[in-house]
Amino acid sequence: MTRETEEPLVAGLLLAAGGGRRLGGRPKALLSHRGRPLVEHAVGVLRQGGCEVVHVVLGAAAGRVRAEARLPGCVLVDNTDWAEGMGSSLRAGLASLRAQALPVDAALVSLVDQPGIGGEAVARVRRAYGSQGSLAAASYGGRRGHPVLLGADHWAGVAADAVGDQGAREYLEAHRDAITLVDCSDVAEPYDIDTEADLVHLE
What we know:
The chain is an alpha/beta fold. It has helices at about 40-50, 60-70, 85-100, 120-125, 155-160, 170-175; strands at about 10-15, 30-35, 35, 55-60, 75-80, 105-110, 135-140, 145-150, 180-185. The strands form two sheets. It has a seven-stranded mixed beta sheet with strand order 5-4-1-6-8-7-9, sandwiched between helices. A two-stranded antiparallel sheet has the order 2-3. Helix 1 packs across helix 4 and helix 3 (about 85-100) packs antiparallel against helix 5. The model has no long low-confidence stretch (mean pLDDT about 95).
């Protein structure tokens, strides 16, 4: 079977490197949710949404995450520059996907600190893949959010613009006319776990 006749490979890319500065320095990947580290839940959501290949970018307390979280089958990527912000994690994750043995057609990017976004939202955005030139994102009340699908043709441009904490925001803004927005308002809530007050969202 040739690559052209196979299903496109849309890999999950989970950004889980944050140090939780506004949470007293508790790494977000290790926050407890349903009795397990939050990173396990986030990986499970990507798999529920159809991403069989999942790369997880670790940063703060990466050694503890490796030791305490059960992440079988995932490619774990250490981002030593995690303190620079989300941009460095996105660059590290895309570089890891480029090095994948099987060519990856698109990255479906999600954030570890958004447990209100489940597998159905991931599946909807994943279905928006049309080619390696695809760009798509979940939308909530008309506003773009996560997860975000980045066709492989865009990775170099995204990486070049991914600085500080903005991730792919600048690139997506510059290409907003090319983005397919996928309404997920009825199946997901895009809140972040950023502060102590946000911890009420964890179970």
